[in-house]
Design goal:
This protein has 210 residues and is mainly α. It has two domains: 92 residues, EF-hand (Recoverin, domain 1, Orthogonal Bundle), CATH 1.10.238; 64 residues, EF-hand (Recoverin, domain 1, Orthogonal Bundle), CATH 1.10.238.10. It is 68% helix and 2% strand. It contains nine helices and two strands, in the order ααβααβααααα. The longest helix has 27 residues.
Length: 210
């Protein structure tokens, strides 16, 4: 008898025996259930990102080149009239931040963070536009270090921000390295500041407890 048939018979007998003895599968622990769910969510996330890449990757390179990134960002931006592309500065910023390979393109592993950043910016575009207009005293379309300090002081409830803190935010938010913050860099600075304040408060609470 072929080996495959023997295996099938043995499997059938085991299944019958298990049914006759009231066999129940071993319960899965809650930790294992969470692990399986996390793995499933990660799989779905990767499938979604790969679908996006496939939809815009017209020359089948497996990644999105600059013009294809522009098309994607244009399509998902609901904060501007349909068909309005991002500015060159905005695309430069995103590629500078998320093109880890430095090849002027975005692959599936880089795409998620890029989309998250773009969505956060477009959802709050009006707020960042108004803040830039308010604090851009020099009318350059960007915030200098002094203008950034005034903006952070506003975020800080009017309490003056130390120069060292302004320097830290500027150094991490000035992606283009020109000593000023454009609209998207302002969004990055805002996120950095809130994270900084939260960490500062946590450290202060720990010291109080001790």
């Amino acid at each position: 008898m072929p080996v495959g048939n023997v295996a099938a018979i043995v499997g059938a007998r085991r299944a019958s025996k298990q049914r006759n003895h009231g066999y129940r599968p071993t319960p899965v622990s809650s930790a294992e259930q969470r692990r399986q769910e996390a793995a499933w969510q990660e799989y779905k996330r990767k499938v979604k990102l790969n679908k996006i890449i496939k939809a815009y990757d017209t020359n089948k390179t497996g990644k999105l080149e600059r013009s294809q990134v522009v098309k994607l960002l244009t399509d998902i931006d609901s904060s501007t009239p349909p068909g309005t592309p991002p500015s060159e500065d905005q695309v430069d910023f995103l590629l500078k931040c998320y093109d880890k390979a430095g090849d002027e393109s975005i692959n599936a592993s880089e795409l998620e963070e890029l989309l998250s950043c773009w969505s956060t910016y477009t959802e709050n575009r009006q707020m960042f536009e108004s803040k830039l207009e308010k604090y851009d005293i020099s009318k350059t379309g960007k915030l200098s270090k002094e203008e950034l300090k005034a903006y952070l002081t506003d975020l800080n409830g009017g309490l003056e921000v130390e120069d060292a803190e302004v320097d830290w935010v500027m150094s991490h938010a000035d992606v283009m390295g020109d000593g000023e913050l454009n609209r998207m860099e302002l969004a990055r600075a805002t996120s950095l500041w809130y994270a900084f304040v939260e960490k500062k408060n946590q450290n202060s609470q720990c010291c109080t407890v001790l």
